[in-house]
Amino acid sequence: MKNRANGLGLVLMAPAVLLLVAFFLLPATLTGIFAFTNMSTSTGISGGAYVVTETVLRKLEATDLDPKLRAGLGEKSYAVNAETLAAATSADIEPGFLAEIEDRLSGKTYAASSAFEDDLKSLPSRPRRIRDLKLATEPFERSVINTRYPDRGQFEAALQTFLPAATKADLETITTASYTGWTWTRDNFIDLFTRADTLRLVANTVFYVCATLAFNVFVGLFLAIAVFYLPSRAGGVFNVLWLLPRITPVVLYAIMWKWFTWENGFLYVAAEDLGLPAFNYMKGSVPTAWATVILVNGFVGASFGMILFSGALRAIPIQQLWSSEVDGANRWQQVTRIILPQMRWPILFVTSYQTLSLLSSYELIWLTTNGGPGSTTTVWSLEAFHTALNNYTGNLQYGLGAAMALILVIVGLVLSILYLRLFRFNELVSKPKIEF
Q1: C-beta of residue 263 within 8 angstroms of C-beta of residue 280
Q2: Is the separation of the CB atoms in 340 and 186 below 8 Å?
Q3: CA-based nearest residue to 381, from 404, 398, 348, 353
Q4: C-alpha distances in Å from residue 185, one per residue of 131, 191, 428
Q5: CB 339 within 8 A of CB 316
Q6: Model confidence over 2-30: pLDDT tens digits?
Q7: Fewer CB within 10 Å, N- or C-terminus of the chain?
Q8: Is 281 within 8 Å of 292 (Cβ atoms)?
Q9: Whole-model pTM?
Q10: Buried residues in 169-183 as b, exposed as e (16+ CB within 10 A)
Q11: Are the C-beta atoms of residues 396 and 41 closer than 8 Å to each other?
Q12: Where in the chain are the domains?
């Protein structure tokens, strides 16, 4: 019988385990993997090719590569061989002229286009127009620059042809700089810990999480206790009203706040009528922008906290409150000595859940201030979103964004452990000292 019960328990747990793997472990694992790559829009998510571009040449200026070799990478030459003759045939060069090139110039190599053009001018079937003559030289052009090589072997073979004096170390330097695909790297974390705006992002995130979390927990707890002491009908109406921020669609909720705070909105008109400064309170100043961000997210979190705290309050035996009233306790004494001591578990859950939620949330900030004015309300998660999925340059940096997300996961886990110790979680889940 016991084995059957264990088997049934495993079957019932299987969907939860699958959901945990699919929606937490797998995304977290992939985030950790991508964090150690330089994946971006330019590299793609699959293998790349090898191309020497002007950008690569500028990048090589910061290396120890011999300047002569670097200059040689950008040079062009002209050769008459089977490969270039085939390219010329495909380019529809006049057959008689092409036959003369193959007959008289085959095997020759030219370091400059002018020397090749001089030899072409000596051929009887040459084009009469200078422009046509220059076009005829293009199929015979040989250059590493802007030529795409699908694999490393072909690229290194081409480099050795154009740069016979290059050493193995030189080839490695050029090959590494020319690779267009993604590679394994720790540079994402080095960049995050050394760039100038990291400290600002951390400070913004800490302020946003702490201020909004305090609003969520304290206001939610206050509302739950206040409704608890109201008559049941009035308390029910009040609960429904405070649920509206939670159940309103996010986009509609953000639009309502824009109407409330933007030019010609409610606050603007009211302030103008009262002779107070009237401007866009959502983006017009740093203090009002932060106030908007905290309130927009705070009302949503406070309604969530109120729901959980209200349920926990209903679980407290009403006889304890009756007994305290007989002993002469007032409402404040009931709250501080009876209600709050028995609310540790709900407060722990709401605090930890809201902390993790605020660390990773950015959608309401994105829809309202978008991190402005400037970047004064930009938090870590919003910057990670812009970096990986929605930046202005068009080059989405998946690897760097994943590194930022991984840091959030680690911070969230550390904070969860601290909360469990702070609220003495072991005592909360321990067996009761008195059993009935």
Answers
A1: yes
A2: no
A3: 404
A4: 48, 11, 44
A5: yes
A6: 555 566 666 777 787 787 777 778 888 88
A7: C
A8: yes
A9: 0.78
A10: ebbebbbebbbebbe
A11: yes
A12: 54-178, 197-427
